[in-house]
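Hi U.,

Before I forget, here's the chain from the pilot set. I'm dumping it here mostly so it's searchable later in email.
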Amino acid sequence: MPSNVEIKAKVHDVQQLIQNAKQLSKSEGHIITQQDTFFKVLTGRLKLRNFLNGSGQLLFYERPDVDGPKLSNYSISPTTDPDGLTKVLADALGIMGVVKKERLLYMVGQTRVHVDTVEGLGHFMELEVVLNDGQSLEDGESIALRLMEELGVKKEDLIIGAYVDLLLAKK
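Structure:
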């Protein structure tokens, strides 16, 4: 199962973060609109990511709910029928929650830098350091912490869990 090291944080100055991400990635970034439907499962998380253009991905992942860098093991399968697959999974498992977001994606080396605007929550930053063969959790943590600093993200802004958890906690 592929692995990455993730960091997620609340963003207070989204324009400054975008400027820093553009500078580090040497790109304008890529806009991705997503609707993630999370399903009720006993372990890990299962979500159907709908790109709202007739394509999507079914993702299963396991990661601890702690702040700071965390290891995430995941599996991904593409789909050309995200609406139909969402209905089947909803009927079989039930829906835990839905997250709607606009994501600006920047690539910095082996790291995906996401600047997310999440409906009902606001602005966030997520780093996904995709681990290469032979790289350790510590290697990924080191990269994530360095990038966090270069992007201007403060340790006190780190969050625990997924966006769906934050939305469910607001209810």
